[in-house]
Predict the structure of MarR family transcriptional regulator.
Amino acid sequence: MTVSKPAEKSAEKASEATKGRKEAPEGQSQGLAEALQLGELSEQLGYVLKRAQLKVFENFLRCMASLQLTPAQFSVLLLVEKNPGRNQTEIASTLGILRPNFVALLDNLESRDLCARIRSTNDRRSHILVLTDKGKAVLTRAKKLVATKHESRLNELLGQANREALLGMLSKIANEF
Amino acid sequence: MTVSKPAEKSAEKASEATKGRKEAPEGQSQGLAEALQLGELSEQLGYVLKRAQLKVFENFLRCMASLQLTPAQFSVLLLVEKNPGRNQTEIASTLGILRPNFVALLDNLESRDLCARIRSTNDRRSHILVLTDKGKAVLTRAKKLVATKHESRLNELLGQANREALLGMLSKIANEF
DNA sequence: CGATAATTGTTATGGATCATATCAAATATC
DNA sequence: GATATTTGATATGATCCATAACAATTATCG
């Protein structure tokens, strides 16, 4: 059980209700729901972090809808492009994906002709990963979508300097916590 | 498939290997794996955000091991404490948890006598949620653990001012993105 | 060399999380 | 008072994450 997206339905009601709000006359108030107090929750880094992460992924998926790429798939394509000739174990473990779970992910990318497994001549156990031409083309388009629709919105929201500061702090947490 | 924790095994090897590294004499190099280049991945906010979130949750669970509280359970206790007398729908939706999934979570907390469902007299459909005495006591201890073991480490790592700035930016993303 | 150990990709499988449809009881609406 | 809505709950499926085990291949070491 983790944190998912919050509800907005009761918020609508609340906004209706809080207008003509009486000072809680006790009793059963016929009660249109009040907005709940988050209290210390809004100070919990884990809580806010998870919420933000869900929002970012959600937006990422919307931006990538035309290419049908999930964050994980995008990260694989990026990593394979940057490190061609590596095998599944290396790519997967760098991304923190367990090898068994990486198989289906790759099956998907390969079935869409974005990525290819090539038997290594050095070590015939391993599969070298490379992007296909289509894979490179799709990745190029994906990067553009991310830059123009996704990361740009973050720059609007936070400002360039803040966005970089945020990234730095998150990296620090990811690497040194 | 999302981002999980990265691997360190190949990193060990790489550190061994990169010492006496030859300038890639072509061919089959007998190859001890090199550290992979993350490239643009380390600039992707979603990627770094997810990594940081996993680390924070992981640390949270370690800090709470003695109380056996997950982040989600902790958030429920916090919210019920701050908003006593609310029903399941209100608490769940505020946390972004769907009602069906909230049932088992509550069953757990109730079976451990941390939280109680009380039939509302106003609306006999709904269950009012309250913390039990044990629930209050456990929550108090949990808060202390979080403050001393969890959030304090973040202050060490980032500094007080940065930690607050981080929280502010994440809240902004969570609410306005 | 040859026996044993380790690695690679894979399958099977279970757990945890998340989402939808549906239901009975209770309440609201008209 | 008939109909619609809400609440908590169950059932169920999808997705993600983790472990064990296997065949093929390679590495290790006596």
